[in-house]
Write a structure and sequence with these properties.
By secondary structure, the protein is α+β, with helices and mostly antiparallel strands. About 20% of the residues lie in helices and about 30% in strands. It contains 6 helices and 20 strands.
Length: about 375
């Protein structure tokens, strides 16, 4: 009986150690948070956009075998974003001990957004004053009035009582059949003020890099567009509103002035764009292309005049100019190509010399090897 109890105790210790080791091996970062004023049937509401942590996203997108091999769990899809609020400034938080998750990842909290952890961005209303459970939280800072054609609705006085929000992830890895739960809790995000529109740092938008992907075909060409890491972050932060980020392509043949090319206008990372040129100069020598990314904004984002400025020019050499000044049409595709080696006597002669040197070196090596063997004898 004592042996059985001892074995059970050891097993429990090992299981606990395994769980704690798994928790210690996983560190998740605080969310990137954006909040904005919204409404629901005329009542004031608060909307939130939360950018997922890369570690969480990577785990949630693992296949089942990898997930089990690494963490001994079979479900990594459930994530909860817990919100805290402060009125007047960013110091009057309402976080309580009861908000802390238990060993199963369950907790009590008035403001929660639940979603699938595999997503890159989470968005939803986190406070809707149409419902008493939210109205009771901020009742002293509201009044009844008319809004958006609705009458007798609950309106939060954002001007008099600024509202601040912070958020954190509560992410639980689960294996219910083995009674294994690994709750992971991030730090709180930076506090954000609930403004009429989301404010995103304008300096994040940098000019794209343009890469020419094809030759000129009559009046069109394919190019791809790439951004630096900061701009990638900005595009990711826009969530499903990223289609409002636009791109404009300009082109010029030789020394002509730049003109606008016809192309799709939604800016996408790494996408290949087909550019069409309304006019092509006769027998051009070079083609230059540049682009800019910009944001027209919408009723949610306060970045309506955001503009990256134009990129560096990408240049395509259409024809090579020889030393005599005449055009060499054979070198249009690859200016460094000196012709087909099979039809070039000088090139063939060079290859023969290289081959002969290689054979001679091999023979000399054999001779020296035999001489050394004789000396050793």
């Amino acid at each position: 009986m004592k042996k059985t109890a001892l074995i059970i105790s050891i097993l429990l210790i090992l299981i606990s150690a395994s769980v704690f080791a798994s928790e210690a091996d996983i560190e998740i970062s605080a969310p990137k948070l954006y909040c904005y004023q919204s409404s629901a049937n005329g009542h004031s509401a608060v909307g939130a956009i939360v950018i997922n942590d890369e570690v969480i996203s990577d785990i949630a997108n693992m296949d089942e075998d990898t997930l089990y091999d690494m963490y001994k769990v079979n479900d990594a899809s459930n994530i909860q974003i817990q919100f805290d609020y402060s009125v007047g400034d960013d110091k009057n938080w309402h976080h309580l001990d009861s908000w802390e998750p238990d060993k199963y990842g369950f907790f009590k909290s008035p403001l929660v957004l639940r979603s699938n952890a595999s997503k890159d961005t989470f968005e939803g209303q986190i406070m809707n004053l149409e419902f008493d459970e939210y109205l009771d939280l901020v009742y002293d800072y509201t009044y009844t009035g008319n809004n958006d054609g609705w009458t007798n609705v609950n309106i939060y006085d954002f001007d008099t009582y600024p509202l601040y929000i912070r958020a954190r992830f509560v992410y639980t890895l689960e294996n219910p059949s083995e009674n294994l739960y690994i709750p992971l809790v991030s730090d709180w995000s930076e506090a954000v003020k609930v403004n009429e529109r989301v404010i995103i740092d304008k300096e994040l938008l940098s000019a794209p890099t343009i890469i020419i992907e094809s030759e000129l075909k009559k009046d069109s060409i394919s190019v791809s567009m790439h951004f630096d890491e900061q701009t990638k972050e900005l595009i990711g932060n826009l969530g499903h509103y990223e289609e409002d980020l636009k791109v404009e392509f300009l082109y010029a043949f030789d020394d002509e002035e730049f003109k606008k090319a016809e192309a799709e206008t939604i800016a996408e990372i790494g996408k290949e764009y087909l550019l069409k040129f309304p006019s092509v100069s006769e027998d051009p020598m070079t083609l230059k292309i540049k682009a800019r990314a910009y944001f027209d904004g919408n009723d949610r984002y306060d970045i309506a005049k955001m503009d990256s400025g134009y990129s560096q020019e990408a240049t395509l050499l259409l024809k090579e100019v020889s030393q005599s000044g005449s055009e060499d049409p054979d070198n249009t595709k690859n200016p460094d190509n000196n012709g087909d080696a099979d039809n070039n006597p000088l090139e063939n002669q060079k290859l023969l010399i290289i081959a002969a040197c290689a054979v001679a070196g091999f023979i000399i090596g054999i001779i020296f090897g035999r001489i050394r063997k004789k000396k050793n004898k």
